[in-house]
Specification:
Largest sheet: 7 strands, parallel
Number of strands: 16
CATH topology of the largest domain: Rossmann fold
Distance between the termini: 62 Å
Number of domains: 2
Radius of gyration: 21 Å
CATH class of the largest domain: Alpha Beta
Helix content: 25-40%
Number of helices: 12
CATH architecture of the largest domain: 3-Layer(aba) Sandwich
Shape: globular
Strand content: 15-25%
Length: 376
């Protein structure tokens, strides 16, 4: 089988390419090598048997050339950031996906499978349980509440604190530009796939972790932030009170899910959560990174600042994919160890996290509570 991976030079794409090559598939990578993710150009980790095409998924000619002779597509190319350049999210993520299906239909390409990468961000805050009103789906917390240092989710009906729930694929409540663009990708994949008989699957990834995550992408998450801080023997800052819940998934489990989506006919026409199945507080996760980094005695800073737009809790129900035989096999500790080992193998790691934090502050993403402001 010949497989095109868009965003193939990236974190998940390159690992997926490795697995496909190793099982005997021909692999083509399409990637625009955009900065800051690929700050230093073509990464050295790309498999030598995978053909790289440098180009943009919004360019019809480049995209069509990459699609010729291909049996399947793993569509991972996406724009991720905290920047408020809303149109770019839809230009890259939504338009790129629409163009993929447009080219397949217009040119009658015999594509046997399309796997589209979505995100846990589509869930928004997900589902919660109120003792009085039952299952509920609250909106994002108001800024005024966060500025008071009141972090917990509230019932929309009675205002009482609610308890997070594992959230299935049947639910979506996107509340930021990235999440909205990813939901549009899911809907296009399933709708166009069904209408034009293009077998398609949407994969809603939780927080994926492992080596090759860009050091330069502020969106790449807590593992990068914490590991870089401990690399330089500095205490990281944890937002809110550190009790936000997340589920993390190992890159090797995600690769296995992607390959299953290419091969398993029962997955066609559906979206699937791909998560770790175990919740961690951010503070718990920090302690794991600190221990593996050899900095268990270095405590994080928890000053009560918050990051505008963050969800309080985000944990995905993976039972739908588990019912088809997939389950996460690798622990968070394995993910962090692989990332830290990879970080320490780099010879020119710069102290970039201070730049990232300054950049988010300049965009008014990181904010202080009223108590902090009044105490100055």
């Amino acid at each position: 089988m010949k497989v095109l991976i868009t965003g193939g030079a990236g974190f998940i794409g390159s690992h997926t390419a490795d697995a496909l090559v190793e099982r005997g598939d021909d692999v083509v990578l399409l990637d625009n090598l955009s900065k800051p993710v690929h700050l230093k150009g073509i990464p050295s980790y790309l498999h030598p048997k995978a053909k790289l095409i440098v180009g943009d998924v919004r360019d019809p000619k480049v995209f069509l050339d990459a699609l010729k002779g291909v049996d399947a597509v793993v569509h991972l190319a996406a724009y991720q950031d905290y920047l408020p350049d809303f149109s770019t999210f839809f230009s890259v993520n939504s338009v790129g996906t629409a163009l993929l299906y447009e080219l397949i239909v217009a040119n009658k390409l015999p594509i046997k499978r399309v796997v589209v990468a979505s995100s846990q961000a589509v869930n928004g805050e997900g589902l919660y349980l109120c003792d009085t009103h039952g299952l509920t789906a609250p909106n994002s917390r108001p800024v005024e509440q966060l500025e008071r240092g009141d972090w917990e989710m509230k019932c929309p009906e009675c205002g009482k604190n609610v308890t997070w729930q594992w959230t299935p694929e049947s639910f979506s409540h996107p509340e930021n530009q990235y999440a909205l663009s990813k939901e549009s990708q899911e809907k296009m994949a399933l709708s166009f796939g069904r209408k034009y008989d293009i077998p398609s699957v949407a994969m809603r990834y939780s927080i994926v972790q492992g080596p090759r995550q860009s050091f330069y992408n502020a969106y790449s998450g807590a593992c990068r932030i914490f590991a870089l801080h401990y690399y330089f023997k500095k205490a990281p800052t944890i937002y809110e009170d550190g009790q936000m819940r997340r589920d993390f998934v190992n890159y090797r489990d995600v690769v296995k899910a992607n390959l299953r989506a290419l091969d398993e006919d029962r997955m066609v026409g559906n979206q699937f959560n791909v998560g770790g199945g175990k919740p961690y507080s951010v503070q718990e996760f920090d302690r794991i990174v600190a221990k593996i980094s050899g900095c268990a005695d270095l405590e994080p800073n928890i000053p009560g600042v918050f990051r505008f737009g963050d969800t309080r809790n985000s944990c995905s129900d993976i039972s739908k994919l588990q019912n088809l035989g997939w389950s996460p096999e690798h622990s968070v500790e394995e993910s962090v160890t692989a990332y830290v080992d990879w970080l320490h193998s780099q010879g020119d790691v710069g102290d970039i996290f201070e730049y990232a934090e300054k950049n988010m502050r300049s965009l008014n993403v990181i904010r202080e509570t009223k108590r902090q402001t009044n105490s100055k």
